[in-house]
Write a structure and sequence with these properties.
By secondary structure, the protein is an alpha+beta fold. The protein has one domain. 41% of the residues lie in helices and 21% in strands. It contains 4 helices and 6 strands.
């Protein structure tokens, strides 16, 4: 029962994330920035500014795409934590600053050639990507865009 409740909470959170991210240029609220930071740190913290910027681009273009990496990131004030091997570990402040810079940079960059979705290179091609075109590879992510 507990797992069902946790899954339901996560689905609701992903649904709400879809309505909070994707602001127009220069219009991100503090909540939107916090959600984006969780996604960047969860999905691409090991990929430097370039990898996080690329993920940020897709967050801005496709706010309703679920980003599961965000569920393993928490923040308490200025401290950020990642769930690693079953334990919450504080992330270095330098890494958090890089994520902030990447989020800002993603507003005007185009590393992903207009991609609307991505997947880690650690996984096989997802079912939803079969009808999409690969448009970029940045660090450990493959970026996709629907054919027009």
């Amino acid at each position: 029962m507990r797992n069902l409740i946790l899954k339901l909470v996560f689905v609701i959170w992903v649904f709400m994330l879809g309505f909070t991210l994707g602001a127009k240029k220069g219009e991100c609220s503090e909540i939107e920035t916090e959600q984006a930071m969780k996604c960047l740190l969860g999905e691409a913290r090991s990929e430097g500014i370039e990898g996080m910027t690329a993920v940020g681009e897709v967050l801005r273009r496709s706010p309703k795409v679920p980003f599961y990496g965000a569920k393993n990131i928490r923040n308490k004030g200025e401290r950020w934590y990642a769930l690693e091997k079953g334990k919450w570990r504080q992330l270095p402040s330098q890494l958090v600053e890089k994520a902030k810079k990447a989020w800002i940079a993603s507003e005007n960059s185009n590393l992903t050639n207009g991609a609307t979705n991505f997947e880690s290179v650690d996984f096989e091609v997802p079912y939803w990507a079969k009808e999409m075109r690969e448009v970029a590879r940045v660090k450990k992510h493959i970026f996709y865009k629907k054919e027009v």
